[in-house]
Amino acid sequence: GDGINMSHKAGRLEVLGTVQVAELENHGTLALYSVDEDGYAATVGNFVNADNATLETGFVADGSVTKVRGNSALLYGTLAMRPMADFYASDRVITLDAPFEFEHIDIELSDVVLASSSSPTLTFELQENSEELQVMASRPQTAYSQYAQNSGASGLGRSLVRIASRATGDMQNLLEALGWSARDGHEVSRALDTLGAEAYDASARASLA
Fold this sequence. Notes:
Layout: E1 5-8, E2 12-15, E3 19-26, E4 29-32, E5 40-49, E6 54-59, E7 67-75, E8 78-83, E9 92-95, E10 100-107, E11 111-114, E12 123-126, E13 134-138, H1 151-163, H2 169-179, H3 186-208
Parallel strand pairs: 1-3, 2-4, 3-5, 4-6, 5-7, 6-8, 7-10, 8-11
Antiparallel strand pairs: 9-13, 12-13
Helix pairs in contact: 1-3
């Protein structure tokens, strides 16, 4: 509630709901996963992210982030941006929304980093030399084929990479599901075997579109 003071002393705290407090001090790693109907993960009167602290906020493909808003903020330490489950087109630069909205704010962050991704097929890279927060999403050439058990599945995997920058409809849904399946890739391996020739034909047609 609005009258509550909250202090996170150490360690990693994953907040799966939303936060609404009068005072929030973070001295550990505070990871925000959910937003309210207005798109905010936390509404805080006064927020302090200490020198030794990490604030971890999530983002999706359209650049939306799990934002923190409030009256005043002192932001030290590290800001970590974490990719969340979504369809990310290959080789696309995503300009992220500002993760903070405060009436009075003092930003003295020592570092801005990407939090590790749980995706078995996607890679993310923070773009330097930009005044905005920008992330490049991509898929290595072996994003799917590295998990293939045979040459047919490997061919399908390579085909999926080729169309991932412009996939639509069912193919986009498939790539999103594979992109956020088990981190060790075993579900990608199983999917390549299950999909077989039909998906290969669909991906080939899409690559010609």
